[in-house]
# Entry
Amino acid sequence: MSSVFGENVKFSIFGQSHSEGIGVVIDGLPAGEHLDMQAIAAFMARRAPGRNPGDTPRREADGARVLSGLAEGVTCGAPLCAMIENTDARPKDYEALRHVPRPGHADFPLAVKHRGHQDIRGGGHSSGRLTAPLCFAGAVCLQILERRGVTVSAKIAKMGDVADAMQRGDSVGGVIECVAEGLPAGLGAPMFGGVENRLAAALFGIPAVRGVEFGSGFSAASLLGSENNDEYFVKGGQIRTRTNHHGGVLGGLTTGMPLVLRVAIKPTPSIALPQKSVDLRSLEEVDLTIDGRHDACIVPRAVPVVEAVTACVLLDLLMEGRL
Amino acid sequence: MSSVFGENVKFSIFGQSHSEGIGVVIDGLPAGEHLDMQAIAAFMARRAPGRNPGDTPRREADGARVLSGLAEGVTCGAPLCAMIENTDARPKDYEALRHVPRPGHADFPLAVKHRGHQDIRGGGHSSGRLTAPLCFAGAVCLQILERRGVTVSAKIAKMGDVADAMQRGDSVGGVIECVAEGLPAGLGAPMFGGVENRLAAALFGIPAVRGVEFGSGFSAASLLGSENNDEYFVKGGQIRTRTNHHGGVLGGLTTGMPLVLRVAIKPTPSIALPQKSVDLRSLEEVDLTIDGRHDACIVPRAVPVVEAVTACVLLDLLMEGRL
Amino acid sequence: MSSVFGENVKFSIFGQSHSEGIGVVIDGLPAGEHLDMQAIAAFMARRAPGRNPGDTPRREADGARVLSGLAEGVTCGAPLCAMIENTDARPKDYEALRHVPRPGHADFPLAVKHRGHQDIRGGGHSSGRLTAPLCFAGAVCLQILERRGVTVSAKIAKMGDVADAMQRGDSVGGVIECVAEGLPAGLGAPMFGGVENRLAAALFGIPAVRGVEFGSGFSAASLLGSENNDEYFVKGGQIRTRTNHHGGVLGGLTTGMPLVLRVAIKPTPSIALPQKSVDLRSLEEVDLTIDGRHDACIVPRAVPVVEAVTACVLLDLLMEGRL
Amino acid sequence: MSSVFGENVKFSIFGQSHSEGIGVVIDGLPAGEHLDMQAIAAFMARRAPGRNPGDTPRREADGARVLSGLAEGVTCGAPLCAMIENTDARPKDYEALRHVPRPGHADFPLAVKHRGHQDIRGGGHSSGRLTAPLCFAGAVCLQILERRGVTVSAKIAKMGDVADAMQRGDSVGGVIECVAEGLPAGLGAPMFGGVENRLAAALFGIPAVRGVEFGSGFSAASLLGSENNDEYFVKGGQIRTRTNHHGGVLGGLTTGMPLVLRVAIKPTPSIALPQKSVDLRSLEEVDLTIDGRHDACIVPRAVPVVEAVTACVLLDLLMEGRL
# Structure
C-alpha cells in the first residue's frame, strides 16, 4: 500500500503532478479544533516554489479548498479532505520521457510495476508536488499540537553550493534537522511501533530522502558508551538528561527531552546536464536531456515538509490507544 | 502498537529477557515450504553470545521449539509459532535497578508509560534477547527467499575498538551494511508503503539502531546530482545502472540492482563505568554501577539480526497484493 | 478509525451530508484498467433518489469528478480520487435538531463522542448521502472484477409495505440478498481475515444495516447437519456442491460456488410521526417532529450500495498477498 | 491475513488441532493489571468438552501456560503469550480424509489455497480447538473490563434437539445472544471502524458462525420505523432509551444502553451419517463416513467463546485513540 499512513489518525494522500487535483484526507482528528486557515496558507507558502535561488520556476497557487471535516469552522470528527486544483500544468514537457527513464527518479521501476501505465507527466504520483497536501496536513497537526504545548521546527543542517550547481546545470542535496519540544515522556512503544519506527516510515515518504537518524545517529557509531549515554538529573522537579545524544527518544519511547532527528536529502535527480539512459522499447542506450522546470536544490523547500510529516506522526502518537 | 510488523506476512514477537519463554508468531507464510531446522539453528547461533570478544558471558541454549505452523515438515498455511525457553535467567542481578533508570536504556520512559509496572529484569521486552526470535523468523524467510533467487547478507562496515573499550569498562558501536541481491524491479510503492519505509520501520525495531540509510545515504547530501545519479545501460538484455548510489531502491521501488542499506548501532548503553542517574521515588541524584552480564559491543551479534529483519520485510514485500 | 477500509486496496470515504464535497480515495487499484465513466454514472444513478416511491425528494446531481488516479483514461497505479460537489444543500432544515437527538439515528452518541462538535446538518458524516462515493468505488471495482469473470448482483429479498408506511407517516425496512458469481475457490483465510469477516465489517458500514448472514445464515440454526451440509460432486471437471447452504464460503474461504449473503436494513429512523426525545442541554423530555426530506424506505436505494461494498471487498480479496 | 485481529490491542492466535501447542499473543494490554489465573481457568473450563450432552469425547487438559507479559503477577506492558500443549492428540483418525473433503468444513477451499499442504489433522488451524486460546484472551479482557464496570454475558437463545440428533447420528445448531452492560456512550465511530463492524469481523472468526445481528437485527426488516425507533428519556440524570431495539449501538457508536448481539451457529458439519464427497485426486465421487470424535452440538461450548470474542473487541474499543 502506498499512500496512506498513520494508526490513530490516518493520512491518505492523492494526486499526481498533473492530475486535475491533489489533496489529502485526514481521518481521526479530534473534534472541536479550530483551524487557522491563514496560518495553514502561510505554512504551505514556505514549501511553494519561487522563494529560494534554485527553486523550480513553476508557479503554484496552492490554495487548498476544504471539502469536508469542518462544521462551523471547527473539526467535527468526520474525515477532513483538502483539495488543491492543479492549474499551472504543462504536461507536454514530459512526452519525450515516456520510454526513457530519468536517472535518479522512480520512472524505471514504476514502468515495470505498472506495465507502462504509470502517469509519466512530471513524475506522476511520485512528484515532489505531492508534498503540498502533506504540508496542509502538517499545518493542521501543528496547530493541534501547539495547543498541547508541542512545537516542531526544522532547519537546514547542511547544504551544497546551489549557486555553483545552477551554473554547472547540476544540483545539490543537504541534511535537514528537525526538533520537537514539549512532548511528554513515555510516548511510543518498544520494537516496531515506536517513535523512531513510525517517524522513519513516514519521513522516507518524502521524495529524495535517503537516510533518517535520531539523536547522535550515525555518529554514535564512533562514540564510546560513556560518551553517548546521557546521564539523568533533576531540574525543576523534572527528570532530564544533561546531554541529549539520544535525541529525546530511547528504545521507541520519548523521554521528555527535545526530539531530534535528521534526514538526508539527495541532490535533485533532474539536472540540466545530459545523461545516459535506455529506451525501454528498443533497449538501446540513448542520450537524455531533461527540459521542464526543476529545482537545483529542494532542501529549503523540504524544510517545512519535514516539519509537516513529523507533526503528523507526533499527533498520531499522542492519540495512541489507552484506557 | 509495539511488537507486530508486516502487512502480508505478520510477525508478532513476544517475551521478556527473563520471562518463561520468548518467541515469534509468523502469520501469512506461503504453504508448502520446507524448513531446514539445522540451517535455522546455525543462523541463530551467529547471534548467540560467546563468539566474539566483547559478548556478554550469558549463555543461551536458544533451541527454538516449533509449536505450530508445520504439517509433515512443511509450512501448512497456519501461523508458525516458535518458542524459546528462558533457562539461564538470573533475575536477581536487576533488583537494584528498579527505581534507578540506566542511561541510554528505555528504563525511564518505560517506567513512565507503564506507571512502574514494566518488567525491570534485564530490560524486559526491550532486551536484545528478543532478537533471538527475530533471527528465527529471519532464518525462515531467508530460506523462502533463497528459493526465489533472493539472498541477503550483512557485514560490519565500521566498528569501534572493542579491546580498548573492554579494558576501559566502556563500550563501542558501529555500522552494519546489508545487501540483498536477486530482487525483481518494480517491488514496493511510492510514498509511505515503499521499500525504504517498511525496511526502516522494521530496522529501527532492533535495539540500539539510531540511523538507517539507503544507497549513498547521508553522503548523498554532499554529492552533486550528476555524481549521485546512476545512469542506465543494458547488460545481458537487462536494464541495469552502471553505479549503484541509489542502493537498488528509487522512490520506494526496487530497481533490480542490489539493495544496499546501512544501520548505525550505538555503543551498548550498559557499561561497567559508574554513571549518574536519579532515583525515581525520591528524585535524588544517585551513582549507578551496572553489574550483570553485558556486551561491550553488540555490533557483531547484530549482523545476523539486520539480515533477519531485512529478510522478513523483503518476503513481506514480495508477497504484496496483486491480481 | 472510522472511514478507511481494505487491506490491499484501501478505500477512504470523506464528506458530510452538507459539506462542500464528498468523495472517495481508492489506493491500490491495479494499473491499466480502463474506466467506463458512463457505466459508473449509470450505476450511481441506481442509488440516487427519485426513482422509487418512498425516496427522499432531495435531488442530487451526483456527477463524480475524478481528481486523480488516471492517466490517458486508464488507472495509473496512483490513488484514484473522485469528488462529488454538494449543491442541493439546505442546511437550515436541521438547526432545530442541534440539541435534540433523533431516535434511531447516531445523533446522541456522536454528540457525546465529539462533545457537541459533530456536524448536525443532515446526519453529517453518518448520512446515507455518503453511500454515493461508496457506489462510485463499487462501480470501479465491478468493472475490474467483471474483466476477471466475477459478477455481483443484489436484489430485494423482503420489504415492508411502503405505500402504507408513507400514508401513516412511518417507514419500513427489508432484507437485501447479494450474489457474487465467478469467484475462484480458495480465496480468503480462516479466522479473522476471511471472506465473511471482511465482508461483514464493510457491510455494517452501510447506514441502517443491522444484520449480515451468509448462505443459510440464521436459518441454519434450525437445520440438522445433514440438511445444512452441501455434498460435493463433479460437474464439467469442476468440484461443486449440489446445494449451496454454505453460500459459497466455508470457514473464511470461497468454495467456487456462488457467494450468497443477506443484510437486514432497518426502517428509516426519520419518520414524519412525532416522537419523544430529550434536550441534551436541559435534560428535559421534548416532543420531536422531523421535517426535512427523507426516504420512507431506503431498501431499493440500498441495493446498489450492497453490490458496491461487496465488490470493493471482493476486489481487495482477489488481490491478496501471494508469491 | 488470517489470525490477527484488533487495533489498539492485537490478538494473534496460533496453533492447529494437533500441532505441538496452540496459543495466543496479546499485544497492547494496559500494564499493571492483575490476572486471576483461577478465574481464567474457570472461564476456559466452560468451553472445554465433556460438560454437555452432545460434546466431543475428546478430553483436553487446557492448562494455559503464560510465557510472557507478566512481571510480579501483573501485566507489564509487554505482549502476553499463553500457550496450551496439545497432549491428547490422536492424529491417525484423520488420514482417510486427506483427499476427501468433508461437507460443511473448510477442507476443500483450504486444499485449493494451500495446494494440498494444509494440516488435515482435525481441521488444522480451522479447528474449534483454536477457540481455547480465544477463551484465554477473552478471560483476560473480561477481568480488565470488569474493573471498568463493563460485564459481558452470553446465553443460548435457540437450539435444536440434541438428544434427537445424537440418536440419528446427526447434529444441530442454534443462536447465541450476548449482552454487554456498563459501556459508556460514544464509543466507536461511523462507517467502517464502528462497534458493529469490529464485533462482526471478529465474531465471524468463530467456527460455524453464519450470521451476526445487533438489536432487533433481521427482525427490524419487518418493523415500522415507529416500532423500531427507541425514544429517549431521562433516568437518574442519564439519557436512556425506553426500549432497546437498537441493541445499544447506533451507526457504529455505543449509546450507553446494553449492547445486544446475536450470532447464528450452524449445526456441526461432522456427523456420523454417511455423506457424499469427491476424491480430489481422481475426481471420483466417494462415500464418506467421518470417524473421529465430534460434538453433536457446539452451541453450549460456543457460549463462552462468544463472550470471549466480544470482550476482546470491547477492550480494544475502550482503548481507542484519543488526546
